[in-house]
Give the backbone structure.
Amino acid sequence: LAKYKIVTPKYNMSYLVGREVETLNDSLLVSNGVLLGQATDWDEESEYEIIIDQTERPGTPKTEDSDQYRIKVEGNKVYITGGSNEATAVAVKEFNKMVTEGGSVDEKTDITGSYAETVKNYEDYYAMTFHDEFDTMDRSIWHFYTGTNTMLSESDCNTDDPKNQWIEDGKLYMKTTKEGDHTNSVHVRTDNSTWFRYGLIEASVKMRQTSGQGGAFWLLGNTSQDYYAEIDIYEATMNAVKFTPLSWVSKSISGVNSGPYYCDFKGDIKTYEGGVAGDSYYRFENDDKEQYFHTYGIEWTDSYITGFIDGRTFIR
């Protein structure tokens, strides 16, 4: 496989898949002695490709059943796909296992499998504990805040008016409107319906690229405990995305200062000019943030937080 490139979707890939791609590339480096090239389905097609997930490459097998995956060879192309992020990720794991254990990959390779059955072979693998595909708005999970939003300004109001938020085609739409001297915006939380510590958290988001926006995807701490904190997975700033691994820590007793706290990260971090020290910014090409859905998320453990966009790590 030394001649091959690994091809993944340019946009909206889950980190469940992305982290397995990283592991596969490491394994291929060990077995081949060379690092395989990386490409997206927007790049020019190469003669030899390992094509992962539902890409725009012609001939990519479609899998309708969310539990099923497929590993298929067609000429000089290896296709690894699944009917869901989970199924695709476990298919990459299976392919990686074939590579590391010296299994045969040739023109006859065409393997189908079940995510539910295959995942039993892997200890400590992620299990889905919460998801919402927004077929309907489940008010037992989601709570819309209403009234003055003093966090932004006295003239900004939170609302759950149907013209500001609605469900359509499996998507939650949130829209800000201006009425007179105030604006109406949308602020929705899971509140007490969903609490967790550690895991992989991600959402697919498409955001307008206008000044004055305040789109964000946060994890908020439990205020019933001594410390309150938030992890900012995504905040929109024109054509950049701000990622703050841990911010705004306060202690709910008198005499203790409250305020912003940012982890002091080192390494190759793309910092937006004018950004706050400790904040990290991801810059998109052209207007990609507005034109396409992107998957934003973190992997949160007891020892690190990895920030990723479209399945690719950009900070840890």
About this structure: Confidence is low (pLDDT under 50) at residues 252-275.
